[in-house]
Write a structure and sequence with these properties.
Order of helices and strands: EEHEEEEHEHEEEHHEEEHEEHE
Oligomer: single chain
InterPro entries: DNA/RNA_pol_sf, Retrovirus_Pol_polyprotein, Rev_trsase/Diguanyl_cyclase, RT_dom
Strand content: 15-25%
Number of strands: 16
Structural class: alpha+beta
Radius of gyration: 26 Å
Pfam family, one: RVT_1
Number of domains: 2
Number of helices: 7
Shape: elongated
CATH topology of the largest domain: HIV Type 1 Reverse Transcriptase, Chain A, domain 1
Helix content: 10-25%
Protein name: Reverse transcriptase domain-containing protein
Organism: Paramuricea clavata
Largest sheet: 5 strands, mixed
CATH class of the largest domain: Alpha Beta
CATH superfamily of the largest domain: HIV Type 1 Reverse Transcriptase, subunit A, domain 1
Distance between the termini: 48 Å
CATH architecture of the largest domain: Roll
Length: 298
């Protein structure tokens, strides 16, 4: 694409590490391939033998249709494939479960049970709600019950992909009579300060994070939802419980305590290091910790 004017536009660049060597690359969000010059490739291996490049029949085209033929190509192994294959189970389909800890909801023993009826469900959401209830039941996150003194209606939360997450409206029931876990949730500024000075970062986003923590047996009776499909009791930590934020944050920080250059914000784990080698070591340390303390069902 061409620009017109007296001043040229400075391209946006980002510094990345290739073969443990820093190199500035221009950002092009529409590019399907990353390209460097032959001279840059040689410079990346200035301290050792330059690996041979393979032939390629790839042809690129400029904005106006002119062909740009490439001389050679090289496939690079992504970092996640370089890590120990023993952690691959952490990225498979299935719900993880934390070992050795459960979530306890501290409810006032003098509290009077509250049972609320199920809310009418919009026809357009009925099937999606039933699909999520089926997923929750299949994973063991919830189980159907016939009777209960406690029950709260649900709030269907529509996610970006169009699916629905079923959440209990616990502010009407258990949140009113339970003690709030006051564990402090870190501010973004605190995380930025903790991870400052690094150039490369890795973010791990835990799938169905709260559901990976089992609920204390005595707390289950307070976590029953009332739906158009009947009553369901939670066996795992549900969304919507006021104490869930503090409980989960405290658990995650304790789980990864001692690993340097790691920041935790609920279900997001940020990992870095002062060097690329340290960054990779910290990633592996986090994965090892998750592997040791969690088990995954498929």
């Amino acid at each position: 694409m061409f620009t017109f004017g007296h001043k040229s536009t400075t391209p946006y660049k980002v510094n990345i590490s290739i073969n443990l060597t820093s190199i500035d690359m221009e950002i092009d969000t529409g590019a399907s391939l990353s390209v460097i010059s032959e001279a840059t490739y040689v410079d990346l291996h200035s301290e050792g033998k330059v690996p041979p490049l393979g032939n390629t029949d790839v042809i690129l085209r400029t904005y106006i249709g002119e062909e740009v033929k490439l001389k050679w190509s090289l496939e690079l192994t992504p970092i996640n494939q370089q890590l120990d294959a023993g952690y691959s189970h952490l990225f498979e389909e299935g719900l993880g479960t934390l070992k050795g800890a459960t979530a306890k909801i501290h409810v006032n023993p003098l509290a009077t049970p509250v049972f609320l009826k199920a809310r009418p469900v919009p026809y357009a959401l009925r099937e999606k709600i039933e699909q999520d209830l089926e997923r929750l039941e299949k994973a063991g996150t919830v189980e159907p019950v016939q009777f209960s003194e406690w029950a709260t209606p649900i709030v269907p939360v529509i996610k970006q992909d169009g699916t629905v997450r079923v959440c209990g409206d616990y502010k009407l029931t258990v949140n009113k009579v339970s003690k709030l876990d006051a564990y402090s949730i870190p501010k973004l500024d605190d995380l930025y300060t903790k991870l400052a000075g690094s150039k490369t970062f890795t973010e791990l986003d835990l799938s169905h994070a709260y559901e990976q923590m089992l609920v204390d047996e005595n707390s289950k009776e307070f976590l029953i939802i009332n739906t158009h499909k009947g009553l369901f009791r939670y066996n795992r930590l549900p969304y919507g419980v006021a104490s869930a934020l503090g409980i989960f944050q405290k658990m995650m920080e304790g789980l990864l305590h001692g690993i340097p250059h790691v920041g935790v914000l609920l279900d997001n784990v940020l990992i870095t290091g002062t060097t690329e080698e340290e960054h990779l070591m910290n990633i592996e340390a986090v994965l090892k910790c998750l592997s040791d303390r969690c088990w995954v069902t498929t």
